[in-house]
Amino acid sequence: MTSERAHTGNWINFPWRRLVNFRRNFLLTHPYFSLWWLETTCCVIALGGLLGIVALIHTHEGKPLPQWQFGLTVNAIIAIFTLVIKGAAGLVLAEGISHLKWVSISGRPQSLSTFVAHDNASRGPYGSFELLWKNQYYPRKTIYALPFISSFGALLTILLLLLDPFSQQIIRNSECEVRVPNNSTIARTNVYSEIGREIVTGQRSSNLAVVPVNVRRAVNNGMFASQQPEPAYACDTGNCTFSRHYSTLGYCSSCKDASSEMRIIEYQEEYTTTTDLMFLNFSLALGESNVTLSRAQMIPGRGQQPDLISRTSSSLFTGTDIVMIRYDNTSTPYNPRRNTKGYRCNIVPCVKTFTAKVANGRLEESLVEESRGEFNLVSRDYNRTNVMDRTNVMAFSKADLDCLQTPDQRDILKRPGYHFDDTTRWLPYNVSFRNGSEEAPLYAPTFDANLRASGSPCATAPGNTHPDLCSGNDTTRKAFEAVPAKCIYTMYTDSIVSLQTNLFDKIFSGEVLSSPREEVPGFNGSETLMAIWNAGSGNGTLEDLQGMMSSMTNSLTTHIRQNGWEGFKTPATGEMYRITTCVHVRWAWMAYAGALVFLTLIFFFSMAVYARTNQSSSASVFQDFKSSLLPVLFHGFDGDSLKQLKHVSISNRQIELEKETEDIWISAVPTLDGSKISMITK
């Protein structure tokens, strides 16, 4: 049992014995490494502490503050690494400066005060300041490297004091946005068809369709409300980004100044048997007719005169055209020809492309593009059983080619006869939907090619030359699926005609009359035209009119994108962020710690090389004295020097001893009792 235990103990101790023997043999064969192994290790530790800080801040840069146990923070870990650097670098500097004090007296005589200054410098910053002042950098017109090296170490010792506050400046905590897993959404639609109830008398409808109340409300909000409605969006954190462009059906408007197109005719008309009035007619063409504002230059009595006249002309393909002529009698100097302005506006279905962001709970949507044309008229072509339904419902449709994923999809479109190039985004498209959803759409056949010149490509060559795409005049499913449903935008003509006939044509037609000679001068007109009259600055500028029209169509677009067809109004998705505190790295402050560590390595290398070179040529070698007190105790002054210092040694006051060191020069000399410090006559 005893032998087994002894055997086990030997097995355990065997690796340690080998390690101890290896260390002893290595130090014996490498004496210089044995002199500096601790300082070398500290250099590695200091460099490791620096790399630790770099790794820490690089890992957490731009990221939220980590939630560690015990409330530890990034700055706390940096402080720990800083403490490691200060401890390791401080030891290297202290031992290096201490070793140089012995090297300084081994080669040439040196002032005892300088020897003491080196010793004090190894103890801290105060002594380092003293050494910088005490060192003789150019004695007897001879340059020695030692005072420069020791002063370099003293300077680094002083700079080491600033490492703590400077390292705490590396990290600055700032507010930032951090991505969260959930997505934000904002309303949009690919398909829109919304009409109100029809007025039916017997078996026939007396009108196409009544505009739904909520559609009228959207138009009125755009014209009368001071704050426009926002599209529905979901952003739980209150900070979201929709950086990818998203498109939706809607309405667009445009206005231009047509004053230069006006025809002005002056004529005279009998007012009374004795009085004639001069009139001015201002006319603008609207389709095949004219819109005319007629004003008398002066009315002797009370009466009304038109200050604004507005007329519309609607077409399924071109939208609603509005012509307005406005007279402004407030401008000076009075000149009816210059004071009268003409405008043309157009309201038309379109596809709008946006980007958006939500900041602090507020939506900011930016318009990127408006695509007003490029629609094709297609048919849903199915029979309804209800007498209130039409048997052939048509729609405007267009395709977004930027939505296509592969070149093969574009090639399939070109084969039946669609014409476009690589820069084309919006393509008039002969496909709509009967029902279904974006994932499983039920496509509608194309309309008769005779209706429009751009009718079904399958009805004419070269469509019929591709049997995989066209079956007679019908489109095959392969051709239908060339463009995904999510890339097709369709607005049904029921909604378009209903808006044009029963809303736009009515609210934008009429006059605003003024009564300048009444007891209380004022204006009279419909609510809509009065809103246009007073829009913006109230001066009737093009910007005022365009602002009003844009506000109205934007509000209508918001309604459309929130009330599209179910299954075809997949909302656009964005990235959701939460506001938190993030780590911001100021690398300039990190440079201080890095420079200090590398300069310490340079000092250690310079000191070690200089000491070895000096001691190799010196008779008295102090290999490992450094900061230890033992060399002073065992290798102090020789006997002759002690006798000369007898009158000094009787003092017990340090300040008196320091005064004596100024005039005492010493050098290390070999004796039979080993190296001793000997006084040298100056």
From TrEMBL:
InterPro entries named among the record's database cross-references: DUF3176
Keyword Transmembrane listed: yes
Question: Per UniProt, which keywords does this protein have?
Answer: Membrane, Transmembrane, Transmembrane helix
Where is the secretion signal located? none
Q: In which domain of life is the source organism classified?
A: Eukaryota
Kindly list the residue ranges recorded as spanning the membrane: 33-58, 70-94, 143-163, 587-610
Q: What is this protein called?
A: Uncharacterized protein
Q: Which organism is it from?
A: Periconia macrospinosa
